[in-house]
Design goal:
Globin-like, mainly alpha, single chain
């Protein structure tokens, strides 16, 4: 990562702020994935997700966030949650739909999808 081309294609920090807010509004309203978020501090999760997506999309590492999202951290964060492929796909699809609605171009959406899919093994455990 580290190439900010994709980060800029989705609109940078301002767009990610909006995207993450919309994403979690969708996710907690979707009965197929909402149970995974029961009892979760969603405002804190939103901030965490903004940081995470900044790193995944190659944005600036102004807060030293990159070190938190390498290796086992992602797997450890999702361990024991029994997240299956269908739930992973559903959340990914919500993210892509949100970014599409916010004006991310098709080639940017394809790349975001590929980067998110590359993380499947660290998230899916069921």
């Amino acid at each position: 990562m580290g190439d900010d081309r994709l980060y800029e294609a989705v609109g940078g920090a301002a767009a990610l702020d909006v995207a993450v807010t919309v994403l979690y509004d969708r996710v907690v309203s979707d009965p197929t994935v909402a149970p995974w978020f029961d009892g979760v501090d969603v405002p804190a999760l939103r901030q965490h997700q903004r940081d995470f997506l900044t790193v995944v999309l190659g944005g600036p590492d102004t807060l030293g966030t990159a070190a938190r999202y390498r290796g086992r951290e992602l797997a450890r964060a999702h361990a024991g949650l029994a997240i299956d492929d269908a739930a992973f796909d559903r959340v990914r699809d919500h993210l892509l739909a949100t970014l599409r609605e916010l004006g991310t171009p098709p080639e940017g959406l394809a790349e975001v999808g590929a980067r998110v899919d590359a993380l499947r093994g660290d998230v899916v455990s069921a």
